[in-house]
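Issue: ligand-bound run for PXG - logging full I/O for the record.

Environment: standard queue, default settings, no custom constraints.

Inputs:
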Amino acid sequence: MTTRTTQEWQAADAAHFLHPFTDFQALASKGSRVITRADNIYLWDSDGQKILDAMSGLWCVNVGYGQQALIDAATHQLKELPFYNAFFQTATPPAIELAELLAEVSPPQFQHVFFSGSGSEGNDTVVRMVRRYWDLLGQPERQVIVSRKNAYHGSTMAGASLGGMSGMHAQGGLPIPGIVHIEQPYWFANAPPGMSRDDFGLLAASWLDDKIKELGANKVAAFIGEPIQGAGGVIVPPATYWPEIQRICDRHGILLASDEVITGFGRTGRWFGCETMGFQPDLMTFAKGVTSGYIPLGGVMVGERIAKVLIEQGGEFNHGYTYSGHPVACAVALANIRLVRELGLVERVRNDLGPYLAAAFAELQEHPLVGEAQVCGLMGALLLVQDKTGRGTAFPPEREVGMVCRGHCFANGLIMRAVGERMVVAPPLVITRAQIDEMLALIRRSLDLTLADVHARGWKR
Ligand code: PXG
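Outputs:
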C-alpha cells in the first residue's frame, strides 16, 4: 500500500468507496477516519493517534490483533493451496479439520457444520435448511420463521428479513415472506411497570407462544434469536427467558436456532452464548470470532436432529457458496480456535475478566447519566438516561446523546459503539485487568464530558 496523508486517503475514499450502513454524502463531506495498523487491543489511525479498541473491530477480534499463529496459518495455506471448492465431491484438509474441531468445541448435539463466507450467509443457510428439513419430513407448510424486533441477523435479503431493524425493512421491500417478529426481551423498554426481570423474562417468552398459536404450530418452522442481542445494544435477557423459549419450542416441536455470530467463541464466558443462557438449540450460526475477524468465514452448526434427516433422506441440498470451506479461512480458524484454547480465554472471561468488568460496570451505574449497566462475559452496555428516578427515563432518541458520548470516546482514544442511547463494549478477550482499568478510565471521562454537554444544553432533569 502507498503512504498518503490523511487528507489524500479521505479524498480517494470519498471519491470511490461506498461504505456499509453509511450516509454517503455526509461521510464524504466529513471524511473517514483511516485506520492503518493494530496491535493487541490498540489501533492507530493515519494521523498516528493510538486508540483502544473496545469493540474488537466489529465484535470479532477475540484474540486481539497481531497474533503470529494466525498470520503463519494463512501464509502457509496460501502457499500450499490458496483455494479449492467443496462442491464437486472434493474437500480440503483445513475444512475437514475445522469441521472436526468445531464439533469438538460445540455443545454435544452438534456434529456437523455447513460453511459460509459470513454471518448473513450463514443465516440464509438457516432459512433454506429449516424449510428443507420440514419438506423432507412431509410438512412443507411449516415455513414461517419467528424472530424478534431489534434483532440483527445480517444484511442479505434473508438476514435483514430475519433481523428486526425497521430501518432496514424500510429499504428494499423487506421482510421476505414467511418471517414474522415478536417483541424483544428488553426489560428496561418493554416490561410493564413494577415487573421483576425474571417475571418479565417469562412474559417475553410467552409472546413466542402467543405468536405460534396465532399462526398455528403446524405453520411454524423455527424460532431464531441471538442469545444476547448485540447490534441491538447488548440487551442481556432475564435468566428466565431462554429456558422458557426452549420449553415453548419443544412443546410445539419447532426448531430453535441460536445466532452466535457475536456470542460465539468465548465472548460470554462459554464457547457459545446458548451455554451461558441455558438452552440447547438445533442450529447455531457463527462467523466473526471463528477467525477473530482475520479473514472472512461463517457457517451453521447443524444439530443431529436436522443432520440426520438431511443425510439419511435428503438427497441433494441445492445450496452453497463458492467460499463454503475456503481453505485459507479454515486454516486461520483452526489456528484461532487452538489459540483460544491455549490461552484459556473462555475460562478467563468466565472466571476473571467477565466478573471484573461486571463489578466495574456496577460502579458506573452510580454515574448520573447511567440508568442501566448490563454485562455478560466481555460484552457490556451502559444506558444513558436523562432521569434516574424509578426505572429511569432514557434520553429521547432525537437528541442523539449516544452519538455525543461516542464523539467524546473517539476524541479520547477509545472506540465504544453507540446503539441509540446504549453505549456498548466488547473488547478483545486477551484484554488484561490493567487494560480494562484503562478502558474504564476513558469511559468515565467520556461520560463526564457528555454529562457536561447535557447540562450545558439543559437536557438533564
Ligand atoms: N448475526 C449477528 C448476531 C450479527 O451480529 C450477523 C449475523 C451478520 O454477519 P455478517 O458477517 O454478514 O456481517 C451479525 C453481524 C453493529 C454491527 O453495528 C453488527 C454486525 C455487523 C455489522 C455491524 O453492531 N453483526
